[in-house]
Amino acid sequence: MSEPWMIEVQDLTKRYGSRVAIHGVSFQVARGEIVGLLGPNGAGKSTTMRILAGFLPATFGTARVAGYDVALDSLEVRRRIGYMPENNPLYPEMRVQEYLRFRARLKGLSRRRARERVEVVLEQCGLTEVRRRLIGQLSKGYRQRVGLADALVHEPDLIVLDEPTIGLDPHQIRSVRRLIKGLAGRHTVLLSTHILPEAEMTCHRMLILLEGRVLASGTPAELERRLSGSRQVLAEIAAPEEGLRSFWNACPEVAAWEMAPADDGFHRCLLMPRGDQDLRPQVYAWVREQGWTLRELSCRRYSLEDIYVRLTGQEGGGASDEDEED
Ligand code: ATP
Fold first, then answer.
1. How does pLDDT run across 241-266, given as a tens digit for each residue?
2. Ligand 1 atom 26: the closest Cα is on which residue?
3. Are residues 55 and 109 in the same domain?
4. CA 83, CA 225: separation in Å to the nearest integer?
5. How many other CB atoms are there within 10 angstroms of residue 95's CB atom?
6. Which domain holds residue 244?
7. 259 and 218 assigned to the same domain
8. Measured from the CB, is residue 318 less than 6 Å from ligand 1?
9. Tens digits of per-residue pLDDT, 84-117?
């Protein structure tokens, strides 16, 4: 089959009793894309993923994976999806290789194919040297890799990873991210995170979920452009206060302004442009024309991080995990 979308979610809604976990969520993911579901705790990321993976029925709406309806064709969907839930239930008393073979067989691979594939994913996920260790004795980072290897073992078209780097140290985070990036093209990946830099570093595109709704979607650059608003200019100008006020009021390029007195007869002027233009060259020219004196001229654009924090009330939870990324 060659459907245009690997994931197609339309108007998806999930209610738990009276609580609405997701509300009319719609989005598409193309083959080979890495897409991040970004949002604070409780935004509805896990709910969306569990519905896609066929672990939870939706209340309304439809979700399709590779053209198959997750509710009506759940067997076809499961064959094509590798899902790593947030708290991946591994068997602590099993050895890594034994567990992966067991999972591969459960997913319908022949004994021979299971052996072959387990070799591939052990290598791919950096598990070769711990293949005979008990899962219960592995570090969290290695257990996470076992979860990834499990999600990959049947060569699914789509890999769905719920918070794949949560609780890992910076080195482990790097290696898991590298692994995920390496899957692009051959596989489609949908991952969830509550950390913006995680989505920016790993994903081609992200969907920001908030209180069960899609707030915005796009590449990091598109979101930055769309959400970060206008570029404010800060200028410190020595001029008569009234003269400055009437000048800014008469300026069609300036949508709004604020002014405060500074020292030595200067005024700090904060100028919001109409549209997205950079006002600095204009301000420089105006100051010269008027014979005023300029001592500072700078431009400030809110970063996507500022906007995300403002929208979600998240003060970068887990940001320390991000320090070492290259
Ligand atoms: P987190 O990052 O904390 O996992 P999330 O974005 O994955 O958050 P969900 O776990 O999908 O969010 O939860 C969305 C909403 O649904 C939350 O308000 C949550 O309390 C609620 N919820 C999730 N599972 C259940 C459940 N089994 N019963 C009742 N409410 C639930």
1. 999 999 999 999 998 888 888 999 99
2. 16
3. yes
4. 32
5. 16
6. 230-301
7. no
8. no
9. 998 777 788 999 999 999 999 999 999 999 999 9
Distance 289 CA to ligand 1 centre (A): 59
Among 19, 22, 165, 191, the mutation site with the greatest number of ligand 1 atoms within 8 A of its Cβ is: 19
Which pLDDT belongs to residue 230? Answer: 65
Token pair of 194 as six digits: 């509550």
Q: What is the overall mean pLDDT for the chain? A: 87
Strand order in the sheet with 158-162: 81-84, 158-162, 188-193, 34-38, 205-210, 213-218
Residue whose CA is at the smallest distance from ligand 1 atom 25: 16
Question: What CATH number corresponds to the domain at position 250?
Answer: 3.30.70.260
314, part of any domain? no
141 and 15 fall within a common domain:
yes
- At 318, the pLDDT band (50, 70, 90 cuts) reads very low
Tokens in use for 132? 């005979």
* pTM, 2 dp: 0.77
Same structural domain, 152 and 214: yes
Q: How many CA atoms lie within 13 A of 217 on its CB side?
A: 13
Cβ of 137 below 6 Å from ligand 1: no
14 CA to middle of ligand 1, Å? Answer: 10
The verdict on 285 and 188 lying in the same domain is: no
Number of domains in the chain: 2
